[in-house]
Model the fold of this input.
Amino acid sequence: MRPLILRPQPAANELAARLRQDGHAPWVCPLFHYQPGCELSQLPALLADAEVIIAVSAAAVQFAQQQLQAQQLSWPRHPAYLAVGTTTAREWQKNLPVTVVTPDDARSEGLLTLPALVSVQGKKIVILRGNAGRELLTDTLRQRGADVTCVECYRRHYLQTDGTRLLQEWQAAAVDSVIITSSELFQQLLNLLPDNADHWLATLHWFAASERIAAEIRHSGFARITIMSGAQHSAVAAALLE
Done:
């Protein structure tokens, strides 16, 4: 297959290399990159009081780690550390003195089933995340009685580029599929491309990281959809092989 990879670097090239091992010919075109979030300066004080710390992406861990290093600080040992998926956990584990717990279901829904998040009345929970995304995790934990603080560790900066030119490049490259790992990424793709792109987009095979994302793709009129088991490189590779 010739899948289109839109996620930022370095993850885009890492995924492309993984897919080439299986004989695919991916086309890499990141639509955004990450910048430091506006709440990083609050991180050390919040970590000192936290009983549970949750990271929703590897990027959140990376930017948080950079902030701590800049202040010559380390992650505290006393909180429970939870990560949405194994990629995020591995990134965190490089600098953590304790084990990071991950759910089998690498989504907010999976995190919410972990024993550490079932009975959280009165607990101080810090969530490391970006500037946009789902509120399910935060809202549910607050409903369960937790004292939740979200820290914007990074911001997505969408690249300003010529959508018509990109469309022509992708068509010339015989792109036949596209990997979508977030709703925001899908909406940015639609906003970027010209109106006459819909016919071509409808011919593609869409690989969605969740049923929720698949529903948005389906609602836009695109029917060839495979739901992956997550956004990790291994999940993407497995879905394309099938």
